[in-house]
Amino acid sequence: MNKPKYGIDAPFVPISYFSCFVILALLGIILISLGHNWAFWLLGYAFFCFICLFFYMHSTLKGKFTIWNNILADLEIKQHAHFLDLGCGRGAIFYLIIKKLGTTVQGTGIDLWKKIDQSGNGIDIARKNAELEGISKQIDLITGDIRSLPFKDQYFDFVTSNLVIHNIHQKADREKALQEAHRVLKREVN
Length: 190
What we know:
Blueprint: H1 12-33, H2 40-73, E1 82-86, H3 92-101, E2 106-111, H4 123-133, E3 139-143, E4 158-161, H5 171-184
Helix pairs in contact: 1-2, 2-3
């Protein structure tokens, strides 16, 4: 059976860590062999880059799932909830939420599908992952900008986002994205 492929967040980061590790390690070994004892520091920096690479890969491939599982375990979501996931990407957290909340929940995911933000990012891959997870009937995928959401006011029961707001560079645009998320969020009636 095929498994969903959720990719690596910001793939240039682990590539950078690995490149620095290799360059510093090789340079350190060469300089040490030439009698430059100070070059042991380069091996220390190389080791540091390797440790950063390890923790980055752990957090992108496993850690974020552990954190979201803990968050979801503490939430009480009503049956038949309809939620929005901002920057859903290939669906890793979006689909985890749907699977955790059950068959009565509906989710809408919105993304710009930039490959720089997530390796292999694309709406077709997100759809394929939903099929592999068995939840394709519970989701809607939309291409769009979270700073201008194409939904009416108070449309969703809750809104989620994982690793997307920081990709908006201007403070005013980040604020606009948060205002939009608030605008489409239903208000609780007591």
